[in-house]
Backbone:
């Protein structure tokens, strides 16, 4: 039997792999602030003092950190993909076995519904590989990089956080609107698939409805991306302006401003990845619930506690 919730399924069938992926995530984000400190030292200590030997050693250290971090990410991404594909395989086999065990593939309508359910398995299974390690990795990078920025220049870090703050308001609002449309689209697509076998079905209405819902999802998603990019660039502009003024007046070193701008760029990517993960989580919770309901109709497979 399938667990009642997506999170229950993830823990029951991939729990130990999620723990191993979490360990890799910790190793990756533990290195995330090191390149920023190396940049600062190259600009301030090495170039400022004109020591060629120090520049070479710091540059080699930067390359070594990048190599280790990249190798860990490579291993983690391959491992994630393996976990996802195993989950997809398990969900497919569960769906097929449940349908055959209860004779749910005998009719054309049941066959169409089975085909639709199988197509919905892939995105759910694909999410499982990164379900736990992704928020840990990106959240860890955010915490370590932002903590380093606070250490470098608390005033600049606080001002940058204020620039990012509106995202905490508009991202959840837009995401909830996207989730509602995703659920409606999945249900409408299933109705359309059933209507293909029914000459009297309202196929055209369903096609138009799917189009309307999909375009609504695109508009909300790309509007969210636009607002996130704008607030990021506003934060960079503020850091350049204030940081430049601080450097001119001698309150900070030039290398600190360089490291701070790099830190803002490094914060933007994990924040966007966290938003995408949150969107995938909520969408796949909806899809898993609909998948469980479809399995119950196909073969009487009731969710377990």
Residues:
């Amino acid at each position: 039997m399938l667990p009642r919730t997506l999170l229950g399924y993830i823990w029951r069938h991939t729990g130990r792999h999620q723990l191993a992926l979490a360990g890799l995530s910790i190793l990756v984000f533990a290195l995330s602030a090191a390149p920023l400190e190396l940049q600062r030292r190259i600009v301030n200590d090495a170039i400022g003092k004109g020591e060629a030997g120090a520049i070479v050693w710091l540059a080699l250290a930067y390359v070594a950190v990048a190599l280790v971090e990249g190798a860990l990410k490579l291993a983690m991404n391959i491992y994630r993909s393996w976990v996802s594909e195993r989950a997809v395989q398990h969900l497919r086999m569960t769906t097929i076995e449940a349908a055959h065990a209860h004779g749910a593939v005998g009719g054309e309508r049941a066959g169409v519904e089975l085909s639709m359910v199988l197509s919905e398995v892939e995105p759910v299974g694909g999410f499982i590989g990164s379900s736990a390690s992704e928020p840990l990795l990106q959240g860890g990078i955010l915490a370590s990089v932002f903590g380093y920025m606070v250490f470098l220049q608390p005033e600049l870090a606080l001002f940058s956080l204020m620039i990012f703050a509106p995202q905490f308001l508009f991202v959840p609002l837009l995401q909830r609107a996207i989730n509602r449309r995703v659920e409606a689209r999945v249900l409408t697509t299933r109705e359309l698939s059933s209507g293909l076998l029914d000459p009297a079905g309202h196929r055209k209405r369903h096609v138009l409805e799917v189009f309307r819902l999909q375009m609504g999802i695109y508009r909300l998603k790309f509007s969210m991306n636009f607002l996130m990019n704008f607030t990021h660039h506003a934060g960079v502009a503020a850091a350049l302006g204030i940081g430049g003024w601080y450097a001119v007046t001698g309150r900070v070193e030039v290398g600190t401003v360089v490291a701070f701008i790099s830190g803002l760029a490094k914060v933007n990517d994990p924040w966007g990845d966290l938003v995408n993960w949150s969107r995938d989580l909520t969408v796949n919770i909806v899809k898993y619930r609909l998948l469980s309901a479809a399995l119950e109709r196909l073969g009487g497979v009731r969710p377990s506690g």
